[in-house]
Write a structure and sequence with these properties.
Blueprint: E1 9-15, E2 17-18, E3 21-29, E4 32-36, E5 39-41, H1 48-60, E6 62-77, E7 82-96, E8 106-113, H2 114-119, H3 128-137, E9 142-143
Parallel strand pairs: 1-7
Antiparallel strand pairs: 1-5, 2-3, 3-4, 3-8, 6-7, 6-9
Length: 152
Amino acid sequence: MSAVWKPPSVTVAAVIESDGRFLVVEEDYDGARVLNQPAGHLDPGESLIAACAREVLEETAHRFVPESLIGIYRWYYAPRDITFIRFTFAGRLEGVDPGRGLDAEIVAVHWLTRAELLAKAAMHRTPLVMSCVDDYLSGKRYPLGVFADGYA
């Protein structure tokens, strides 16, 4: 870890489940093909909830409504000396925009079971991919009212 503290990068992610399958994106990241939940960075002036809905739409063309927080996760990525603080949400889909283009780094969108996702663990962008699915499956949910950021 760096001797000089660098502020963490705030990210959001969505665990979206339908009929035992989870919506994941296949993307190019740091020279590798990886799997991740729909996820991305918080934009200036944006609430965490709005950021999550936006990222899901941009990466999957699905309209997502966050309904609960699954957890807040910290992960350190040593190759770039970045600490990520990830807010992961559960919620519901309200449809898909099939003609919508996806973010440039997105290669494909998949619906995978937990077993299929686990079998592809070597492709996970971070260890948080499986942790978030398992926390979701264990029933972890926190009300969105925990956020008092003034951007709700």
